[in-house]
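We modelled the chain as a single entity of 377 amino acids. Its sequence is:
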Amino acid sequence: MHNEDSLSTAEKERYSRHLALPDFDEHTQIKLKNARVLVTGCGGLAHPVLQYLVAAGTGIIGIADDDVVHISNLQRQVLFSEKDIGKSKIDVVIERLQPMNRAVKFQTHNTRIISENALQIIQQYDIVVDCADNFPTKYLLSDACVLLGKPCVFGAIYRYEGQVSLFNSTKNINYRDVYPTPPPNGSILDCEEGGIIGVLAGLIGCMQANETIKWITGIGECLDGKLLIYDAQSGLSDIIQIRSRSDNPVSGEHPTLTGLTDYDAFCNAQNKKRTSDMVKEISVQELKALMDSDEDFQLIDVREPEEFEEVNMEGELIPMNTIPEHVQDIARDKKVVIHCKGGTRSGNVIEYLQAQHGFSNLYNLKGGIMEWKKNYM
């Protein structure tokens, strides 16, 4: 591929605010002009990433996504409008962005990134920006980048919290060093169930764009080996140092993963079994008898606050996603009954507590509060 080695007069004027920066000269802008960046996903994170990479004069931008615009996207995917519903996300994004900078070239991959195509697609680019919204794709992207020696700008958002990092750059750090295994099935509600504040996508996406530009130009200090956590409710952020794990299967002392695997199966297999010998259950009749007795026990409700306000059994509210922060509040010296609406979330919580914290005194309310309502409300 031919690399440009100069800027035209028009380019110098267009990027004059870049060129006025300390340590940012024509050679720096040319690095952006010659860069090849892959943005995976075309959702909330990708929109600000793409807008600012285009505005910055990034030479070639690849976009990978196979989805169409839905009305629920409009709250945070700001390049779309109501008239775009049902259209290809990639087509609409390029239609909006190309007029911003005709010099930028787009490469489209109208497909989901999967094990069979990831290496072929990623190897065409200098750096990957992970704007995926699911765990299988995030593990896949990270592993593929490690195998190909490509840096990956990680971004994630959930409710009011966002995370950003630069993986697989100068330090031997990748996604598996932060999250060795996926969370238990059902322990993290998706965007539809858990919600997300729309502006957070813009904030975190802008941070990802900034990390990408810093890596390309070599100006500034990247979040290499660091995880930035931002709280949209407080406006506060924290940076955590990440340590490489010796047991990392793709980059540890004894790597066992030398190729890509089935990531949907990997993520779903972590906690796919739900058997009576793994999670002890208690019926609503047994719970009622326990309540009527003199036995001391703890009742924990892991639903969301709005569910609790609507109807509850006067248990202790500890929403599922806050369980890791409240492990110390869960008794170990007496029977603990955990419930949710139907028994799925509470069962996931019990599996997590048993596997990660060694609890053996936990009971899942079979049928949850819905079964309780049928019998006692």
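As a brief sanity check on the tokenised model: The radius of gyration is 24 Å. The chain has a mean pLDDT of 91.
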